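Reading a protein record of the kind used here takes little practice once its layout is understood. An example of such a record is reproduced below.
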Amino acid sequence: MNDTVLEASDMLLLPDEEPADQEAVRYWKFLIVDDDRDIHRVTKLVLERHMFEGRKLQFMSAYSASEAIGFLGEHPDIAVVLLDVVMEQDDSGLTLVKVLREVLGNQLVRIILRTGQPGQAPEHTVIRAYDISDYKEKTELTSTKLFSTVYTSIRTYQFLSGVVADKETLEEKVRERTRELELRARELQASIRQAYEAMMEISVLEERNRIARDIHNVVGHTLTAAVVQLEAGKYLIEIDALRASEKMELAQQLVRKGLDEIRSSVHQLAEQRETIDLQKDLERIVRETEAYAGVQINCRIEPLPQLTFYQIKLICHALQEGLTNGIRHGRSTCFHFRLTCGGSLIDFALRNNGLDPDGFRYGFGLTALRNQVEFVHGTLALQAAADEGAELRIRLQVPESGQGT
């Protein structure tokens, strides 16, 4: 290829002054791809003394498309490629554009297509089909036009690089902020859960205190009245035997009433203590439901790891709610209850022989239960069973070691 690229009169002559600190000068990487060595020499001669947006050019030379691919793979930060079309093949330059954009995935580098045989690659066809920045014929590319074209391409490259850098910075900030918000959300949820469990404990203590006050107030008052009647009977025994006997009988009734109050209060306290024994609580719910509702409940409860107080109360509440809904809305007469633990999940399954759950919506009780399950990151589903009836399924996370009640 012997096309004349630049006339000597077209060259821009600049002063022979160099920066004092050559090491401090930053460069734009500039790749010349052409099989004509004179093109490389003249292009460097025209551009090497110019500054583009505060930087000089760092020239790289490739004499074939395959050699250029090596440069582009090794230097993805090349700013501008001055590319010939006809080299090893008639379309080597166009093939290189495809490889650069589609294979190497480099969308930033600016490509100035320069050809000495425009008939091989018509401008309007190339501009439409290929992602290039400019198209120039070698005969029209004077030194002034070459400078202007390169300058414009570098400005475009600088702008696009800034956009990409800003986008990456913004995405990193968004990711960092998202991580912070997720961490704060987990901390807040843990704090809320701990506060809720503390409130549950406080409510249990308050109930026990109420029972203790009842023992003190009601039973104390009853026994005090009995003592008064006994004192009166003791005084009347020698004066009026009939009235003394009445006083003794009244005192006996008061003592019996007091004993009943004490038994009732002690039973309530015992029930409060039993809430930490999940299996006993569940078995009690099953026995009482079978006795009062006349239904059959097949029950299988496997050994479980130590659970939190909130989880124990939640499982008991879920069994009560599931049985109540199955009897009241599903008209169920038989239930199969299974509570197991596999890996890090507790699996609660309550199946009945009642109506299809699609026939009714979540009521207040099931809605509240679902919210409580989701509060501890569990899942709740009410769906038709495989054979008949409905099945309530709940899955809860096993608490980490040391977090149980």
Remarks:
- Residues 27 and 55 are 5 Å apart (CA to CA).
- The longest strand covers residues 334-342.
- The domain at 23-141 is CATH 3.40.50.2300 (Rossmann fold).
